[in-house]
What we know:
This protein is of the alpha+beta class and 158 residues long. The chain is built from three helices and six strands.
Amino acid sequence: MTGLEVLRLCIDDRTYAPPIYHLTGLRPTQAEDGSCTFVMPASPWLASPAPVLYGGALAMLADAALSCAVMTINPAGGSFAPLDLKVNYLRPVLPDGGLLTARATLVHRGRSMAVATAEVTNEEGKRVALASSSNMLLPGRPWRDLAGSADRELPPPG
């Protein structure tokens, strides 16, 4: 399956979603060639004692959208590797349960590298963070072949 097909499967059938989606409420809502949107509730489970959401929770939401924007161009049998992630935090997010949205698009799509940017907004549509990432494209290198995972037996889910 292509990366776009995998993402659309996760959108259409939550049983295919990875465990982190169920743990955090993170979920993809849109995937097109070169773009992806994720939402996540501003849950008290993701808050610091301050109480505001941890920056890492916002980075996770942004990274999900950024990585999946790259994944939309991933061919069947290919993979990619993130090279960096940059997040600019613009305002604090209260753990009020409101839905946060990260919209990511590819701004560069080369032979060996893709760069994506994302905007994270709160339920009122106010920007709370901006993010970007660079990714090395690895066509013809399946995920299972990366980092020696082909030699390891994966445990069953659950």
